[in-house]
Amino acid sequence: MWPTRWWAPSLFAGLLLLASCGGTKKLNYRNGRYYSASEIARMKAAERRGAGSSKTKVKTKTAGMSPGGRKIVARGPKRTSSPATANRQIATVIEEARSYQGTPYKFGGTSRLGMDCSGLLSVSFGAAGIQIPRSSNEQAAWGDPVRPQDLQTGDLVFFGASPGSSTITHVGLVTDVSSEGVQFIHSSTSLGVVENALESDYYLSRFIKAVRPKL
User: Fold this and answer.
1) Is 170 one of the annotated active-site residues of the chain?
2) Nearest to 108 by CA among 134, 139, 90, 86
């Protein structure tokens, strides 16, 4: 049997330890689940980083060379809507454009009976409540220049009629960017509204520029 003078302090210390553990466990409960002290610390640090990043304003710019050798500095477009709103708008534009797949090419057309390349973009952006210029040359000035390696969904890509041409005659809308490449939708004179890979020799040889729309 433990001597009374040892037993009482030991019992008191044990009760303190249990109370301490119970208190820690209660404090480390979140959403009905127990987390260790280190996990709680990591979660709080992540929350602080998230709160700080939401207040951070990011400005980006890329540099390249124009065909004439002049330096081009492409700045992020001035937006009148939030990034989340812009993303929803681009999703609507792409969804609308894809709904026209199989529509035959028709010069000056803007309906399911037939449409041309700039008409497809005009109608698709219109579905998201965005008015854009009608011709491909005007659309090429409706945005900020983007380097091919910086393309994003929603960007516009422009082409010439023949390899090496600097005269814009065709436009498409980037629909997907992944490690496998860039896909764009357009109204082809031979196939109508289709999606193609930008990396194909045919389109790369005729590629002139890309712009990011001002949303």
Assistant:
1) yes
2) 134
